[in-house]
Amino acid sequence: MAIRTAMARLRASAGSLGGPWTKGEGWTRRSSGSAGESDPEEVARAARESMEQAEREAKENLRRETQEAMELLRQLEADVEKSDFPSLEEILETDLDEEERSLRRDEEKKKQEDITKQRVRVVDDEGKANAVGKRKASVANVVLWQGDGTYTVNGRRFSEYFPNFSQREEIIKPFLATSTLGQFNVSATARGGGLSGQAGAVRLGISRALQFYDPGFRPSLKAEGLLTRDARVVESKKTGKKKARKSPQWSKR
């Protein structure tokens, strides 16, 4: 870029001296059809001045661009300090927290495996496992034994007793978690509450019965949260309110 600029200025300076220059025997200048004597010193001086000027401009452009880049960098640093970006220390602490959580998960898994080894099979004389499950106001007594996959609730097939597909899905979740779908028969007696609560109670009873039948199922059931009693219930109504939290409409006048 600097060389092209210098050559352009050289041509301009040559034109100001009286016209274009040609190289023959020395430097000669063509002007209005008459040849004149060459002036190489003038041409060399003009070339040096053009080169020096181009070099000065290149240095000035480089200095200006460097200054703009430094200003932009300082602005970015100021924006980062003002923003909510986490610092390097916070990022490292987050990584440590992830490692701690991973270690805790591994410890919990090992603990569950140790508990499983200590547990023994709990079945009656006929090889059936009995368990009780609860959910909301519902209670379910579940009997589980090896079979062809027949599930009954209160003497009816579970597909007839629970018309909602999501409720049927709740019943078979323990078998899906342990990959034993169709390998056990279930007879459940549910009472209290509605169909949703009874489905949850039967699910918990089946999970506990599977654990009693084979303690090796415990890690899989525990990982899916199927052995945890869901303690959520409807909050009771309060005096002076329409429901547990809802207040009657208030009128200023």
UniProtKB/TrEMBL annotation:
Residues 239-253 have a biased composition (Basic residues). InterPro entries: Ribosomal_Su5_D2-typ_SF (IPR020568), Ribosomal_uS9 (IPR000754), Ribosomal_uS9_bac/plastid (IPR023035), Ribosomal_uS9_CS (IPR020574), Ribsml_uS5_D2-typ_fold_subgr (IPR014721). Pfam families: Ribosomal_S9. One of its GO terms (biological process) is translation. GO terms for cellular component: cytosolic small ribosomal subunit. Residues 42-66, 101-111 have a biased composition (Basic and acidic residues). Residues 90-100 have a biased composition (Acidic residues). Keywords: Ribonucleoprotein, Ribosomal protein. Belongs to the universal ribosomal protein uS9 family. PANTHER family: RIBOSOMAL PROTEIN S9, SMALL RIBOSOMAL SUBUNIT PROTEIN US9M. This is Small ribosomal subunit protein uS9c. The lineage of its organism: Eukaryota, Viridiplantae, Chlorophyta, Picocystophyceae, Picocystales.
